[in-house]
Structure formats: structure tokens, C-alpha cells
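Question: Now follow the chain.
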Amino acid sequence: MTNPALARPEANEHAPYHARYIAAVAGDDVIAVLREQAVEFAVVLGRLDEAAAGHRYAPGKWSVRQIVGHLSDAERIFTMRALCLARGECAPLPGFDEDAYVAAAGHDALPLAALLREFGQVRQATLTLFRHLPAAAWLNRGTVNNAELTPRAIAYIIAGHAAHHLGVLRERYGVAAT
């Protein structure tokens, strides 16, 4: 691990519902996990054709395209939250309705390759921000969606959220592993 401030977050750094995402992160180098996930998503999902990208495993569930778009949207939101907390923001930050965001986004009208490219660019922006945060900033605390969070917890939540959705894509959508 390159930064001791990036050790796995304590339970008091996040809401209980975030624990499953944090637990989904393998190892203790979240920056390496975030880097590896960018490659894994490009390889695994880059093999899908446009018909497979539109697949939903059940009525009312998101398509593969919508999942990729959701990951980009959610990562932008979580990264903005990490930035705000790292800079000492005192105002509570709001939650967001992921289903409303997906419904408004129009991801299904876009080619999967474009959505994967966007996800890769969002992930690179996340990694750039995280590489430049001062060590002390990782432990700043703030309120997000009525829960106390730290940027350190957010980094693990981002990685765990992506791991969760990759698992769903494998288990319910039949997307093959690397």
C-alpha cells in the first residue's frame, strides 16, 4: 500500500449500508483495485455486442448499458463527495435517486463502447483526484445523505460498488469473467 491513510476504513467512517461495498474490496490497496477494475470492465464488457448490451435479466431491471452508465454517474457523485469532504466542506451533501438518474440518462441510446470509454475516463479522473489528496484529507469527516463519511471510506465504496455490479453482471447477465 502506498499511503497509510488509505487503510481499510473503520466502521465509524461510513453508514452501515456501505459495509457490504467496503467488504467487497479485495486487499488493502484501494487505488490498485480501482486501477485494475478500469481494465477489467473494459476487457470483460468490451467483448459484448450491442444486443447483449441491451439485455435485461428480468422486466424492470437495468440493461448492461444502463449499469455501465449508472457506474459512471455514481462514481462522479461519490468522487465529488470525496472532494468536498477532503476540502473541509461543512454543509451536508444530499443523496441521489439512482433509478431516477438512470431513467433520465438515456444510456440505452448510446453504444456500449462509448459508455465503456466514458467509464474509463471517469475512473481516470477519480484516480487523479485520489493520487493528489493530502494524507490528512482522507480522514476528514462530513455528512452525506444523512450519514457521516470520510473520503477514505468513499474510495472503498466506489471500488466495492463497481465490484458489486460486476458480480451482478456475471451472475444475472451471464457476462463471462476475464
About this structure: The mean pLDDT is 96.
